[in-house]
Design brief:
Length: about 210
């Protein structure tokens, strides 16, 4: 038997005779770095991550900012847009649902959630949200347009759909969706010539002042 083997045996015997060695005191787990950051900083970092396309971190930081006390209404909108961009539509509903239950008068958030439900092929739920939105915000054009689309495609109520496309055009004749609204009315055999922009009137020339 070599000297090294003898030494190992002696060492093991000595340790056994002395009993188990005392365990070192437990060390606390490393602190979560997020816990050391203010709500404002978490929100700012979340927005920055969203701008650079790191949507996973953006969601984490924005959700944490709400937990740390950042104004929920402001952070929630940024958080929902991140979830929508990353196709995490169910997560968007999970974040927004409790807030909307506490703040049912927040029609912009309700409108955004209606869009999420449409993305999930939940037309009936979207219909219920939009019906309430157009009642609470009758002078906002975008809800009228989306409601008209849902009425046409999901409900099959052409008469009401026509009314809301027309309401959109009366509120936003030069709006981003004005052309689409006119085309939808045309396909539904609703006269739209009177709603065309002057530049779009067929066979019409505009006089110029010399």
């Amino acid at each position: 038997m070599s000297r090294s083997q003898i030494a190992l045996i002696i060492t093991a015997s000595s340790l056994a005779a002395c009993g188990p060695a005392p365990l070192p005191p437990p060390t606390p787990p490393p602190a979560d770095p997020v816990q050391e950051v203010s709500a404002e900083s978490l929100f700012a970092q979340g927005v920055q991550h969203a701008r650079t396309g790191d949507l996973v971190r953006a969601e984490q930081y924005l959700a944490s900012s709400i937990q740390r006390g950042y104004p929920e209404r402001d952070a929630l909108r940024a958080l929902l847009h991140v979830c929508i961009r990353s196709s995490r539509l169910r997560a968007a509903l999970d974040y927004a649902g409790p807030y909307l239950a506490r703040n049912p008068q927040d029609w912009p958030l309700r409108f955004l959630l209606a869009s999420v439900h449409i993305g999930l092929d939940e037309g009936q739920i979207a219909f219920e949200h939009l019906e309430r939105v157009v009642e609470e915000a009758p002078d906002e054009p975008e809800p009228h347009y989306l409601f008209a689309v849902v009425l046409r495609d999901e409900v099959g109520d052409i008469a009401r759909s026509t009314n809301h496309f027309e309401r959109y055009l009366s509120l936003a004749p030069q709006g981003e969706r004005a052309r689409a609204a006119r085309e939808s009315l045309s396909r539904m055999n609703v006269p739209v010539a009177s709603r065309l922009d002057p530049a779009e009137q067929p066979g019409e020339t505009r006089e110029t002042t010399p």
